[in-house]
Amino acid sequence: MTMLPAELLRKKRDGAELSAEEIAWWIEQVVAGSVSEAQIGAFLMAVCIRGLSLRETAALTRAMSQSGIRFHWHHLGKPVVDKHSTGGVGDKLSLLLLPLASACGVLVPMISGRALGHTGGTVDKWESIRGVRTEFAPAELEELLREVGAFLIGQSEAIAPADRILYRIRDVTATVESIGLITASILSKKLVEDLDGLVMDIKVGSGAFLPTLEAARELAQTMQQVGAELGLPIRCAFTRMDTPLGSAVGNWWEVLEAERALADYDAAPPDVRRLTEVLAAQMLLAAGVERSAEDATERVRQVWRNRTAWEQFHRLVRAQGGDWDGSLSAYERTPRKALLAPASGTIVRLDARTVGLAALLLGAGRRTESDSVDPAAGILLRKKPGDPVTAGEELALLLCSQPERFPAAQELLLSAYTIGEMAPPSPDPLIELLL
Ligand code: URA
Q1: Going by CA atoms, what residue is nearest to atom 3 of ligand 1?
Q2: N or C: which end of the chain has fewer CB within 10 A?
Q3: Residues 364, 300: one domain?
Q4: Same-domain check for residues 337 and 320
Protein backbone atom coordinates (compact mmCIF):
# COMPACT_ATOMS: atom_id res chain seq x y z
CA MET A 1 0.00 0.00 0.00
CA THR A 2 1.36 3.43 -0.91
CA MET A 3 -0.14 6.45 0.76
CA LEU A 4 0.78 9.99 1.54
CA PRO A 5 1.17 10.57 5.31
CA ALA A 6 -0.62 13.93 5.09
CA GLU A 7 -3.63 12.28 3.41
CA LEU A 8 -3.96 9.80 6.25
CA LEU A 9 -3.64 12.63 8.76
CA ARG A 10 -6.30 14.64 6.93
CA LYS A 11 -8.64 11.64 7.03
CA LYS A 12 -8.26 11.19 10.79
CA ARG A 13 -8.40 14.94 11.40
CA ASP A 14 -11.76 15.06 9.61
CA GLY A 15 -13.16 12.25 11.76
CA ALA A 16 -13.22 9.36 9.27
CA GLU A 17 -12.47 5.79 10.35
CA LEU A 18 -9.07 4.46 9.25
CA SER A 19 -8.92 0.92 7.84
CA ALA A 20 -6.78 -1.80 9.44
CA GLU A 21 -4.49 -1.64 6.37
CA GLU A 22 -4.04 2.13 6.72
CA ILE A 23 -3.23 1.78 10.42
CA ALA A 24 -0.74 -1.05 9.76
CA TRP A 25 0.91 1.05 7.03
CA TRP A 26 1.11 4.08 9.35
CA ILE A 27 2.78 2.09 12.13
CA GLU A 28 5.27 0.66 9.61
CA GLN A 29 6.18 4.21 8.57
CA VAL A 30 6.55 5.31 12.19
CA VAL A 31 8.91 2.45 13.04
CA ALA A 32 10.89 2.82 9.80
CA GLY A 33 11.42 6.52 10.50
CA SER A 34 9.67 7.41 7.23
CA VAL A 35 7.40 10.00 8.84
CA SER A 36 8.52 12.99 10.87
CA GLU A 37 7.93 13.57 14.59
CA ALA A 38 5.71 16.53 13.60
CA GLN A 39 3.53 14.12 11.60
CA ILE A 40 3.44 11.64 14.48
CA GLY A 41 2.44 14.46 16.85
CA ALA A 42 -0.31 15.50 14.43
CA PHE A 43 -1.59 11.91 14.23
CA LEU A 44 -1.69 11.60 18.02
CA MET A 45 -3.51 14.91 18.45
CA ALA A 46 -6.06 14.00 15.75
CA VAL A 47 -6.70 10.67 17.49
CA CYS A 48 -7.03 12.38 20.88
CA ILE A 49 -9.61 14.79 19.52
CA ARG A 50 -11.52 12.46 17.17
CA GLY A 51 -11.14 9.21 19.11
CA LEU A 52 -10.68 5.69 17.75
CA SER A 53 -13.43 3.18 17.07
CA LEU A 54 -13.11 -0.27 18.62
CA ARG A 55 -12.06 -1.61 15.20
CA GLU A 56 -9.36 1.05 14.87
CA THR A 57 -8.17 0.44 18.43
CA ALA A 58 -7.84 -3.31 17.79
CA ALA A 59 -6.01 -2.65 14.50
CA LEU A 60 -3.63 -0.16 16.15
CA THR A 61 -2.96 -2.57 19.03
CA ARG A 62 -2.28 -5.44 16.62
CA ALA A 63 0.01 -3.36 14.38
CA MET A 64 1.96 -1.98 17.35
CA SER A 65 2.31 -5.43 18.95
CA GLN A 66 3.75 -6.77 15.68
CA SER A 67 6.24 -3.92 15.29
CA GLY A 68 9.04 -5.85 17.05
CA ILE A 69 9.87 -9.29 18.40
CA ARG A 70 7.35 -11.42 20.30
CA PHE A 71 8.47 -13.69 23.10
CA HIS A 72 7.60 -17.34 23.80
CA TRP A 73 8.08 -18.43 27.38
CA HIS A 74 5.83 -21.42 27.80
CA HIS A 75 8.64 -23.95 27.25
CA LEU A 76 9.86 -22.78 30.68
CA GLY A 77 6.94 -24.74 32.17
CA LYS A 78 5.36 -22.08 34.37
CA PRO A 79 2.37 -19.78 34.01
CA VAL A 80 3.21 -16.30 32.73
CA VAL A 81 1.34 -13.22 34.01
CA ASP A 82 1.79 -9.49 34.35
CA LYS A 83 0.17 -6.40 35.78
CA HIS A 84 0.05 -2.91 34.29
CA SER A 85 -1.36 0.38 35.52
CA THR A 86 -3.00 3.14 33.49
CA GLY A 87 -0.71 5.56 35.33
CA GLY A 88 -0.75 7.28 38.68
CA VAL A 89 1.19 9.43 41.12
CA GLY A 90 3.32 7.65 43.72
CA ASP A 91 2.27 4.39 42.08
CA LYS A 92 5.08 2.04 42.98
CA LEU A 93 2.89 -1.08 43.07
CA SER A 94 4.66 -2.84 40.17
CA LEU A 95 7.89 -2.75 42.18
CA LEU A 96 6.18 -4.81 44.89
CA LEU A 97 4.13 -7.03 42.59
CA LEU A 98 7.07 -8.22 40.51
CA PRO A 99 8.87 -9.86 43.47
CA LEU A 100 5.66 -10.95 45.21
CA ALA A 101 4.16 -12.76 42.20
CA SER A 102 7.45 -14.29 41.10
CA ALA A 103 8.12 -15.43 44.67
CA CYS A 104 4.82 -17.33 44.39
CA GLY A 105 6.15 -19.31 41.41
CA VAL A 106 4.76 -17.50 38.36
CA LEU A 107 6.86 -15.87 35.65
CA VAL A 108 6.56 -12.09 35.29
CA PRO A 109 8.25 -10.73 32.12
CA MET A 110 7.33 -7.08 32.69
CA ILE A 111 7.75 -4.58 29.83
CA SER A 112 6.92 -1.20 31.29
CA GLY A 113 7.20 2.48 30.36
CA ARG A 114 8.84 5.69 31.47
CA ALA A 115 7.17 8.72 33.06
CA LEU A 116 4.11 9.80 31.10
CA GLY A 117 2.61 13.28 31.55
CA HIS A 118 2.25 14.02 35.26
CA THR A 119 2.60 10.32 36.21
CA GLY A 120 5.75 8.38 37.04
CA GLY A 121 7.11 5.49 34.97
CA THR A 122 8.22 2.16 36.35
CA VAL A 123 11.26 2.01 34.03
CA ASP A 124 12.53 5.41 35.24
CA LYS A 125 12.01 4.23 38.83
CA TRP A 126 13.84 0.94 38.30
CA GLU A 127 16.74 2.71 36.50
CA SER A 128 17.17 5.07 39.44
CA ILE A 129 18.89 2.15 41.17
CA ARG A 130 22.55 2.64 40.29
CA GLY A 131 23.71 0.17 37.61
CA VAL A 132 20.30 -1.29 36.74
CA ARG A 133 19.93 -2.08 33.03
CA THR A 134 16.54 -2.14 31.35
CA GLU A 135 17.62 -3.30 27.89
CA PHE A 136 18.70 -6.91 27.34
CA ALA A 137 19.09 -9.32 24.43
CA PRO A 138 16.33 -11.99 24.20
CA ALA A 139 18.70 -14.75 25.37
CA GLU A 140 19.59 -12.72 28.46
CA LEU A 141 15.89 -12.18 29.19
CA GLU A 142 15.26 -15.91 29.03
CA GLU A 143 18.14 -16.43 31.43
CA LEU A 144 16.60 -13.86 33.84
CA LEU A 145 13.27 -15.68 33.73
CA ARG A 146 14.94 -19.08 34.31
CA GLU A 147 17.14 -17.82 37.13
CA VAL A 148 14.96 -15.24 38.88
CA GLY A 149 11.47 -15.74 37.45
CA ALA A 150 10.99 -12.11 36.44
CA PHE A 151 12.47 -9.08 34.75
CA LEU A 152 11.58 -5.43 34.35
CA ILE A 153 12.53 -3.76 31.09
CA GLY A 154 11.38 -0.94 28.82
CA GLN A 155 10.47 -0.75 25.16
CA SER A 156 13.49 -0.78 22.84
CA GLU A 157 14.34 -0.77 19.14
CA ALA A 158 13.53 -4.48 19.10
CA ILE A 159 10.82 -4.73 21.77
CA ALA A 160 7.56 -2.83 21.20
CA PRO A 161 9.38 -0.20 19.08
CA ALA A 162 6.15 1.46 17.90
CA ASP A 163 5.06 2.15 21.47
CA ARG A 164 8.55 3.37 22.30
CA ILE A 165 8.26 6.09 19.66
CA LEU A 166 4.61 7.05 20.25
CA TYR A 167 4.97 6.99 24.05
CA ARG A 168 7.89 9.42 24.06
CA ILE A 169 5.96 11.89 21.91
CA ARG A 170 2.66 11.48 23.81
CA ASP A 171 4.48 12.28 27.05
CA VAL A 172 5.17 15.88 25.99
CA THR A 173 2.31 16.67 23.58
CA ALA A 174 -0.75 16.31 25.87
CA THR A 175 -1.89 13.27 23.88
CA VAL A 176 -2.03 10.65 26.60
CA GLU A 177 -5.72 11.02 27.43
CA SER A 178 -7.25 8.78 24.78
CA ILE A 179 -8.93 5.43 25.40
CA GLY A 180 -7.69 4.10 22.05
CA LEU A 181 -4.08 5.23 22.54
CA ILE A 182 -3.88 4.00 26.14
CA THR A 183 -5.33 0.62 25.14
CA ALA A 184 -2.97 0.19 22.18
CA SER A 185 0.07 1.40 24.14
CA ILE A 186 -0.47 -0.95 27.06
CA LEU A 187 -1.72 -4.02 25.22
CA SER A 188 0.90 -3.80 22.45
CA LYS A 189 3.57 -4.24 25.14
CA LYS A 190 1.68 -6.96 26.97
CA LEU A 191 0.96 -8.99 23.80
CA VAL A 192 4.72 -9.24 23.23
CA GLU A 193 5.11 -10.94 26.62
CA ASP A 194 3.30 -14.25 25.78
CA LEU A 195 1.02 -14.00 28.82
CA ASP A 196 -1.62 -16.34 30.23
CA GLY A 197 -3.31 -13.34 31.76
CA LEU A 198 -2.98 -9.66 32.53
CA VAL A 199 -4.17 -7.72 35.57
CA MET A 200 -4.96 -4.08 34.83
CA ASP A 201 -4.93 -1.44 37.56
CA ILE A 202 -7.30 1.19 36.16
CA LYS A 203 -6.86 4.44 38.04
CA VAL A 204 -9.82 6.68 38.79
CA GLY A 205 -9.60 10.25 40.18
CA SER A 206 -7.80 13.56 39.76
CA GLY A 207 -4.38 11.94 39.25
CA ALA A 208 -5.62 9.50 36.60
CA PHE A 209 -5.56 10.20 32.85
CA LEU A 210 -9.29 9.39 32.76
CA PRO A 211 -10.54 10.84 36.07
CA THR A 212 -14.15 9.60 36.10
CA LEU A 213 -15.34 6.07 36.87
CA GLU A 214 -17.48 6.23 33.73
CA ALA A 215 -14.46 6.84 31.47
CA ALA A 216 -12.42 4.27 33.38
CA ARG A 217 -15.18 1.68 32.79
CA GLU A 218 -15.15 2.47 29.08
CA LEU A 219 -11.37 1.99 29.02
CA ALA A 220 -11.65 -1.34 30.88
CA GLN A 221 -14.30 -2.61 28.47
CA THR A 222 -12.26 -1.55 25.46
CA MET A 223 -9.19 -3.30 26.86
CA GLN A 224 -11.10 -6.48 27.62
CA GLN A 225 -12.70 -6.52 24.15
CA VAL A 226 -9.43 -5.90 22.33
CA GLY A 227 -7.68 -8.38 24.64
CA ALA A 228 -10.32 -11.02 23.85
CA GLU A 229 -9.91 -10.43 20.12
CA LEU A 230 -6.13 -10.75 20.34
CA GLY A 231 -6.07 -13.68 22.77
CA LEU A 232 -5.19 -11.99 26.07
CA PRO A 233 -7.55 -12.44 29.07
CA ILE A 234 -7.63 -9.29 31.21
CA ARG A 235 -8.85 -8.75 34.79
CA CYS A 236 -9.41 -5.13 35.81
CA ALA A 237 -9.27 -3.45 39.20
CA PHE A 238 -10.59 0.14 39.45
CA THR A 239 -8.55 1.91 42.11
CA ARG A 240 -8.54 5.43 43.59
CA MET A 241 -6.01 7.99 42.36
CA ASP A 242 -7.25 11.22 43.98
CA THR A 243 -4.27 11.39 46.28
CA PRO A 244 -0.78 9.89 45.75
CA LEU A 245 -0.18 6.29 46.80
CA GLY A 246 2.05 5.94 49.85
CA SER A 247 4.27 8.84 50.91
CA ALA A 248 6.97 8.95 48.25
CA VAL A 249 6.65 10.48 44.79
CA GLY A 250 9.66 10.48 42.44
CA ASN A 251 11.85 7.75 41.06
CA TRP A 252 14.42 6.68 43.67
CA TRP A 253 12.18 7.65 46.61
CA GLU A 254 9.42 5.37 45.33
CA VAL A 255 11.84 2.47 44.86
CA LEU A 256 13.05 2.97 48.41
CA GLU A 257 9.48 3.09 49.76
CA ALA A 258 8.64 -0.13 47.87
CA GLU A 259 11.73 -1.89 49.22
CA ARG A 260 10.97 -0.78 52.78
CA ALA A 261 7.35 -1.93 52.41
CA LEU A 262 8.49 -5.37 51.24
CA ALA A 263 10.83 -5.60 54.21
CA ASP A 264 8.04 -5.10 56.74
CA TYR A 265 4.43 -6.01 55.91
CA ASP A 266 3.03 -4.32 59.01
CA ALA A 267 4.88 -1.04 58.41
CA ALA A 268 3.89 -0.77 54.72
CA PRO A 269 1.68 2.25 53.90
CA PRO A 270 -1.91 0.93 54.24
CA ASP A 271 -3.03 2.04 50.73
CA VAL A 272 0.04 0.46 49.13
CA ARG A 273 -0.42 -2.76 51.12
CA ARG A 274 -4.13 -3.05 50.35
CA LEU A 275 -3.82 -2.58 46.58
CA THR A 276 -0.68 -4.69 46.30
CA GLU A 277 -2.44 -7.61 47.98
CA VAL A 278 -5.51 -7.31 45.78
CA LEU A 279 -3.50 -7.07 42.55
CA ALA A 280 -1.01 -9.80 43.49
CA ALA A 281 -3.89 -12.14 44.37
CA GLN A 282 -5.48 -11.40 40.99
CA MET A 283 -2.17 -12.23 39.29
CA LEU A 284 -2.12 -15.65 40.98
CA LEU A 285 -5.74 -16.26 39.96
CA ALA A 286 -4.97 -15.19 36.37
CA ALA A 287 -2.03 -17.62 36.39
CA GLY A 288 -4.31 -20.39 37.64
CA VAL A 289 -2.03 -21.24 40.59
CA GLU A 290 -4.79 -20.44 43.11
CA ARG A 291 -8.54 -20.90 42.81
CA SER A 292 -9.96 -18.47 45.36
CA ALA A 293 -9.14 -14.85 46.18
CA GLU A 294 -8.78 -15.81 49.88
CA ASP A 295 -6.19 -18.53 49.18
CA ALA A 296 -4.34 -16.29 46.74
CA THR A 297 -4.21 -13.43 49.27
CA GLU A 298 -3.00 -15.81 51.97
CA ARG A 299 -0.15 -17.03 49.73
CA VAL A 300 0.87 -13.47 48.88
CA ARG A 301 0.83 -12.49 52.57
CA GLN A 302 3.02 -15.44 53.43
CA VAL A 303 5.85 -14.56 51.01
CA TRP A 304 5.54 -10.92 52.07
CA ARG A 305 5.59 -11.52 55.82
CA ASN A 306 8.41 -14.09 55.74
CA ARG A 307 10.49 -11.70 53.60
CA THR A 308 10.85 -14.12 50.67
CA ALA A 309 9.50 -11.36 48.41
CA TRP A 310 11.95 -8.83 49.86
CA GLU A 311 14.81 -11.22 49.11
CA GLN A 312 13.38 -11.73 45.64
CA PHE A 313 13.36 -7.92 45.12
CA HIS A 314 17.09 -7.82 45.86
CA ARG A 315 17.79 -10.84 43.62
CA LEU A 316 16.04 -8.97 40.81
CA VAL A 317 18.02 -5.79 41.46
CA ARG A 318 21.30 -7.73 41.39
CA ALA A 319 20.32 -9.78 38.34
CA GLN A 320 19.69 -6.58 36.36
CA GLY A 321 23.02 -5.09 37.44
CA GLY A 322 21.87 -2.90 40.34
CA ASP A 323 23.99 -1.73 43.26
CA TRP A 324 21.56 -1.24 46.17
CA ASP A 325 24.01 -0.14 48.85
CA GLY A 326 25.78 2.22 46.45
CA SER A 327 22.40 3.78 45.61
CA LEU A 328 21.51 4.25 49.27
CA SER A 329 24.68 6.18 49.97
CA ALA A 330 24.56 8.18 46.71
CA TYR A 331 21.03 9.52 47.27
CA GLU A 332 21.64 10.36 50.94
CA ARG A 333 23.32 13.58 49.81
CA THR A 334 20.41 14.88 47.67
CA PRO A 335 19.66 18.59 48.35
CA ARG A 336 16.27 19.01 50.08
CA LYS A 337 13.82 21.69 51.11
CA ALA A 338 10.87 21.50 53.52
CA LEU A 339 7.38 22.75 52.70
CA LEU A 340 5.79 24.11 55.88
CA ALA A 341 2.08 24.28 56.72
CA PRO A 342 0.71 27.84 56.43
CA ALA A 343 -2.15 27.12 58.89
CA SER A 344 -3.32 24.63 61.51
CA GLY A 345 -6.12 22.15 60.93
CA THR A 346 -6.60 18.82 59.17
CA ILE A 347 -5.48 17.84 55.67
CA VAL A 348 -8.76 17.61 53.79
CA ARG A 349 -7.38 17.06 50.30
CA LEU A 350 -4.05 16.41 48.58
CA ASP A 351 -4.52 16.56 44.83
CA ALA A 352 -2.60 13.78 43.09
CA ARG A 353 -2.26 15.50 39.72
CA THR A 354 -0.78 18.68 41.25
CA VAL A 355 1.68 16.63 43.31
CA GLY A 356 2.69 14.80 40.10
CA LEU A 357 3.25 18.11 38.30
CA ALA A 358 5.32 19.45 41.21
CA ALA A 359 7.50 16.31 41.03
CA LEU A 360 7.84 16.87 37.28
CA LEU A 361 8.98 20.47 37.90
CA LEU A 362 11.66 19.08 40.21
CA GLY A 363 12.90 16.84 37.37
CA ALA A 364 11.14 13.51 38.06
CA GLY A 365 9.63 13.63 34.54
CA ARG A 366 10.38 15.28 31.19
CA ARG A 367 9.32 18.64 29.75
CA THR A 368 10.52 17.80 26.22
CA GLU A 369 11.41 14.49 24.52
CA SER A 370 15.15 15.06 24.90
CA ASP A 371 15.10 15.74 28.68
CA SER A 372 16.64 13.19 31.00
CA VAL A 373 15.00 12.60 34.37
CA ASP A 374 16.69 13.39 37.67
CA PRO A 375 16.48 10.09 39.57
CA ALA A 376 16.90 11.96 42.86
CA ALA A 377 14.01 14.36 42.23
CA GLY A 378 10.97 13.69 44.36
CA ILE A 379 8.64 14.57 47.18
CA LEU A 380 8.22 12.88 50.56
CA LEU A 381 4.71 13.60 51.80
CA ARG A 382 4.81 14.02 55.58
CA LYS A 383 1.08 14.81 55.77
CA LYS A 384 -1.72 13.14 53.86
CA PRO A 385 -5.52 13.50 53.96
CA GLY A 386 -6.91 12.92 57.43
CA ASP A 387 -3.70 13.98 59.22
CA PRO A 388 -3.82 16.85 61.73
CA VAL A 389 -1.30 19.63 61.14
CA THR A 390 -0.01 22.66 63.08
CA ALA A 391 1.06 25.89 61.35
CA GLY A 392 4.81 25.74 60.64
CA GLU A 393 4.93 21.93 60.71
CA GLU A 394 6.46 20.08 57.74
CA LEU A 395 3.88 19.15 55.11
CA ALA A 396 6.37 17.63 52.70
CA LEU A 397 10.06 17.41 51.87
CA LEU A 398 11.16 18.25 48.32
CA LEU A 399 14.32 16.66 46.92
CA CYS A 400 16.22 17.39 43.74
CA SER A 401 19.73 17.70 42.32
CA GLN A 402 19.12 21.26 41.05
CA PRO A 403 18.14 23.50 44.02
CA GLU A 404 17.04 26.35 41.71
CA ARG A 405 14.00 24.21 40.95
CA PHE A 406 12.70 24.29 44.54
CA PRO A 407 10.74 27.59 44.61
CA ALA A 408 8.36 26.85 41.69
CA ALA A 409 7.80 23.26 42.83
CA GLN A 410 7.21 24.38 46.42
CA GLU A 411 4.57 26.88 45.33
CA LEU A 412 2.78 24.30 43.19
CA LEU A 413 2.94 21.62 45.86
CA LEU A 414 1.42 23.97 48.42
CA SER A 415 -1.56 24.45 46.10
CA ALA A 416 -2.11 20.65 46.13
CA TYR A 417 -2.93 20.76 49.85
CA THR A 418 -6.29 21.83 51.29
CA ILE A 419 -6.21 22.40 55.04
CA GLY A 420 -9.63 22.52 56.69
CA GLU A 421 -11.42 21.44 59.82
CA MET A 422 -12.50 17.88 59.29
CA ALA A 423 -11.52 15.32 56.67
CA PRO A 424 -13.95 12.66 55.45
CA PRO A 425 -12.87 9.11 56.42
CA SER A 426 -10.44 7.65 53.86
CA PRO A 427 -12.27 5.32 51.49
CA ASP A 428 -11.04 1.86 50.44
CA PRO A 429 -8.46 2.46 47.65
CA LEU A 430 -10.05 -0.44 45.75
CA ILE A 431 -13.29 0.69 44.09
CA GLU A 432 -14.30 -2.54 42.34
CA LEU A 433 -13.08 -5.48 40.29
CA LEU A 434 -14.15 -6.36 36.76
CA LEU A 435 -13.19 -9.98 36.08
N1 URA B 1 0.84 3.05 30.49
C2 URA B 1 1.23 2.80 29.21
O3 URA B 1 2.07 1.94 28.98
N4 URA B 1 0.67 3.51 28.23
C5 URA B 1 -0.28 4.44 28.43
O6 URA B 1 -0.77 5.03 27.48
C7 URA B 1 -0.69 4.71 29.76
C8 URA B 1 -0.10 3.99 30.79
Answers
A1: 186
A2: N
A3: no
A4: no
